[in-house]
Structures are given as C-alpha cells and as structure tokens.
Amino acid sequence: MEEARELRYLKVTVPRFTKHSWMAFPAFRGAYKHVQLHIEFRPESFDGIILLTGERDDLTGDFMALLIHQGFIEFW
C-alpha cells in the first residue's frame, strides 16, 4: 500500500533582512518523515539563524536549526 504524501511548496522572496528582521510560518508538521529545503541567501553577518523549527511551538522536543556561526553553516 502506497503511503499518501502531502506536498506543500512555499516560495518567499524578500530583498533583505536586517539584524532584527524575522519571518514566521506554521510549523513543519509531519517533517519527521521527510523534509526537502532549498534556501538561497547572501549573508551580511558572520552569525545568524536561517531556519529554526521545533516539534512543539515552544521548541521543546526535537528541533531543526540552520545557523551561520562565525561564517560557517551549521545544521542542528
């Protein structure tokens, strides 16, 4: 039996974020099975958060984070 999959695409085009800018989207429900992301960015800082999502809204439980730390990408 083939498992049903829901595919949702989100395209966001934003010209620039400053140090205090952010965007919020609904949680990635069901992402524990499969997540595919395509992110393009041009950082203006050596440190920052690109993506942060958690199992729960208060970020307890499992989480996924994509960061820039001292100029290098880190995936948690």
UniProtKB/TrEMBL annotation:
InterPro entries: ConA-like_dom_sf (IPR013320), Neurexin-related_CASP (IPR050372). Gene3D superfamilies: 2.60.120.200. One of its GO terms (cellular component) is membrane. This is Uncharacterized protein. It comes from Lutzomyia longipalpis.
